[in-house]
From TrEMBL:
Residues 113-218 form the Peptidase S24/S26A/S26B/S26C domain. Belongs to the peptidase S26B family. Its EC number is 3.4.21.89. It is an enzyme of class 3 (hydrolase). NCBIfam families: sigpep_I_arch. This is signal peptidase I. Signal peptide: none annotated. It comes from the Eukaryota. It comes from Setaria viridis (Green bristlegrass). GO terms for molecular function: serine-type endopeptidase activity; signal peptidase activity. Its main location: membrane. SUPFAM superfamilies: LexA/Signal peptidase. It is a single-pass type II membrane protein.
Length: 256
């Protein structure tokens, strides 16, 4: 609403005073009260002779009031920016801390694995039985603990060995050992306890024996069914990502 030069704003946003007319104007919700005040002011003004003509009447509510300037839209944006920047910095620090924690867990697992390799002398201290070829002694999903030394392999031992052209090691029992006098080595024949025939059909083409260098380790103990998670991740690779995500959530929850 245009107030005109003779009108002055009061400290109350719903009131303003007309200095020349001697009236108070307000919002409609307070109209009955102000009408009564205006009537009294007009009556007093018309009967008074002490005021010169055309001199505006000054009432207690007729003082200047200017609202505090907050800086407009730019000031508001600066205020919001100052509030958001510390929150953003805190979030970045939190993400970095969680990433470092996850990296430390993975590094610790790798260090433990390398330590087991040194202690056992085997490049694979733990293996999972993937088939039923060694039943009833070992079942699918059992974990075998291996060690390796320079002593000659004996018949009856359970060994884990590599075969040329096969990416997955084999866990079977040694059934024959023949010493070679020409090379001072040993010819070794293996077989699964649950198989009818020896492993010559599993060896590389034309190979009848395996040698000491093919053996990765000798079984010294086992943990029943503890390797089923590894089998599940091998058969369903999506479980690997689920496990990694669960590990990440566990790290986040532990930090909170």
């Amino acid at each position: 609403m245009h107030l005109g030069k003779a009108k002055r704003i009061t400290p109350f946003p719903f009131l303003w005073v007309d200095l020349e007319m001697g009236t108070i104007t307000t919002v409609s919700s307070l109209r009955p009260c102000v009408d009564l005040i205006n009537a009294l002011l007009l009556s007093s003004s018309s009967s008074s002779s002490s005021l010169p003509p055309h001199e505006p009447c000054r009432f207690p509510l007729a003082w200047s009031w200017t609202p505090h300037h907050t800086g407009g839209r730019g000031g508001d944006m600066d205020f919001l920016r100052r509030g958001v920047e510390p929150i953003r910095a805190t979030q970045i620090r939190s993400v970095l801390a969680q990433t470092i924690s996850l990296g430390m867990i993975l590094a610790s697992a790798l260090i433990i694995w390398k330590g087991l390799m040194v202690v056992t002398g085997s490049e694979s201290p733990l293996v999972v039985v993937l088939s039923e070829s060694m039943e009833p002694g070992f079942k699918r999903g059992d974990i075998l603990f291996l060690h390796m030394n320079k002593d000659p392999v004996r018949a009856g031992e359970i060994v884990v060995f590599n075969v040329d052209g096969r990416p997955i090691p084999i866990v079977h029992r040694v059934i024959e050992v023949h010493e070679r006098h020409d090379t001072a080595g040993f010819d070794i024949l293996t077989k699964g306890d649950n198989n009818l025939h020896d492993d010559r059909m599993l060896y590389a083409h034309g190979q009848l024996w395996i040698q000491q260098q093919h053996i990765m380790g000798r079984a010294i103990g086992y943990l029943p069914y503890a390797g089923w998670l590894t089998i599940a991740m091998t058969e369903k690779p999506v479980l690997k990502y689920v496990l990694i995500a669960a590990l990440g959530l566990l790290v986040v929850a532990s930090k909170e």
